[in-house]
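Lab meeting notes turned into a lecture example. A postdoc, R.K., suggested we walk through two folding results consecutively so the class can see how the record format repeats. The first protein's sequence and structure tokens come next.
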Amino acid sequence: MLVSSVAGIRGVHMLMAYQVVKGALPQFARAMAREFADDNIRVNAVAPGIITTRFHAGVTPEQRRHNLDNRIPLHREGTPEQVARLIAELATNDYMTGETVAIDGGLTMRIA
């Protein structure tokens, strides 16, 4: 299981190296899934959006409000527990491989 980020899908201003690495992980998951499929080894990735963690602690209250009101269709941040449940589901689903699943409240489907 690989953990990417929606930053690898949409990009984030001033975080070029971070978004390049996170953007490479979905392709890495696909390559490994293809490589190891004959051995019944599955490889998937998750791409969290704005999750309530210390990673986003530096976001100003104004930016947080903007994100919730204008960027995230569900108008709330995700939780680490929601990401963990998705990872657990992908780990136990024996017919899914080579996929990256965004868990982002709809952030990546928005044009904002």
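The second example is placed directly after the first for contrast:
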Amino acid sequence: MTQPPPARVGEPAVSIDTPALVIDLDAFERNLDRMAAFGRETGIRIRPHAKTHKSPIVARLQIERGAVGQCCQKVGEAEVLVAGGVTDVLVSNQIVGTAKCARLAALARRARIGVCADHPDQVDGYAHAARTAGVVLHVLVEIDVGAARCGVPTAEAAVALAQRIEAAEHLIFDGLQAYHGSAQHIRGHGERRQAIANAGDRVRAAMESLSAVGLSCRTVGGAGTGSFRFETAHGLWNELQPGSYCFMDADYAQNLDTEGAERGEFEHALFVASTVMSAAAPGLAVLDAGHKASAIDSGLPSVWLLPDVHYVGASDEHGKLSLGAGAARLGLGDRVWLIPGHVDPTVNLHDWYVGVRGGLETGVVEAVWPVAARGRMD
């Protein structure tokens, strides 16, 4: 059962019921505009990743600014995006199983649908589903560019798989998927750049091998919020797939720039609104937002706007704050804004976004949006 919205349009931000997922709309829109401007300036396609926001509303705002479409990881997410008016979706993942492939192919009646492969049996499954549905699917060969997760390991394997796609009726070989997920969170600027340079070597080898047999890549896709400038500078990638940039979590903010400082290219725009529910001991306050309100896989959330206050522990429904010597005492009912450590799984914990205009402390609720693809892991 979906919970009731935690706020109504027109109410002050400080009245939002907690815990709640809150977007600072001013910062959020500036983030969207920065990435859109980067795409225009470089001439590179931007295909934001919807696994971050799980919202056709956010997707349409990105597309209005020039994004070519959306990525997602699951068929269920793709179904929600297409139902919400997104007409170009790449499932940047492998899909296995007759039922899921049939659902994917059915979407191609209403939108341009892409998907990734790293095994011949996946290609055969896509071809059967597309033929049965009477549609065309666009298929990218995923190559392992260093993450040791999905992707074919060699250029020769990429060629064999691309040829199998090209030979299949109802499938179009669209190019390469070359995403280095683990490189996104390498803190050092030089080390992160080198990881993408190594990935570029693998991309170039695959492209050259494909060209030798007469196959070209319309798309070389990948990159994320932590690395997109490096892929662009490399000159091989022509489609970027950043997700977290629109909200910016505490973990990404720890990546360092060329001067060794934490990056500030994008602003924190997503927060978990929480309330002090207990303050029984000196130097301690307890919030109503634990790890069921903010994912902790990439670290505990950070506290916004309260210097010397630190989120130091999370249980199911409790978040423990340490109040440093310079911190003002927090009392029952006080509002605390948290920056999630990892936005993607945090979003998946909530039914609603509350969009606030004019700042968290003094702003007004302008929008309430459903997290429409919440829980769509299918």
